[in-house]
Specification:
It contains 10 helices and 9 strands. It is of the alpha/beta class. The chain has 2 domains: about 210 residues, 3-Layer(aba) Sandwich (Rossmann fold); about 60 residues, no CATH class.
Length: about 290
Amino acid sequence: MCTIPAKDAWIAELNNKKLGIAGKIAAGKSTFLRNAKTYLETKSIRPIVEEEKVDGVLLQAYIGNPKEFASDFQTERAGACHHRQAIVNVKREAFGNEQVALVERPLYENLVFALANQRCGNLTTSYIEDFYKPMLELKNNLPCDLIIYLHVTDERSVHNQAVRDRAGEDAYRSEYLAVLGDEYFDFVLEHVEKRKMLVIDWSNFGRVEDVLRLAAEVLAGRQKLPTITRVDCSSDDELKHSAGITKIRGPTGEETVVCSQPSTRKKKYHDKIITALSQFHDVEIFM
């Protein structure tokens, strides 16, 4: 006799899991978290949800004078993230294992902003290497089982910022936002390569239920994450002509070739590659 699984049986795959919700400024992370909390509660699950809370006064001071306040802002952000993780740990112990924890902007996502500030000349290398990175590695870091990256285009991010009208956000410098986009691109590639990131195209939003279900399928091993392969062309004359090429392979083997720079830092191709990852296409980068 065939047993038909319960309609919402997939939710069990989220039990005792920690999901990081990542994304650029105004990607929709907080809205996603609130909707996920509401949805899970309708399924009789008590989710542990920790949103990022930004000190508005310090944010405005930093935006107004990044060279003066970048180190204060970054240190506060890392400390706040550790605090969110500590709360998650306490709640998991108190509520038991049959929970799902969702944390906005997981710990190492903070490094994206620090590296962007370093490239803009607002932070020193010694601050990053001697203080900031060690601070991110404190013992209460609980790694995420999976990071859900909500990808939006820069245009969508700007639109979302205008809609939510958060004090001071419109003063972000265009140079900083461009560099931040580069660092986020590298952040995505790094975590996709580690098979720890589920990329979602969130420019047009979608149903939170579908994203959670997909995360459950990935955690259960029923959905395979896409792969990124880097091919070093520097020592192979036959491959040198391919340097700066990205191949995107679809699930059925079809190929799309995208010209890119060897460092992959060419903004016009970021969205194409990340969108391909959200569609579970494998990506091969010739460098």
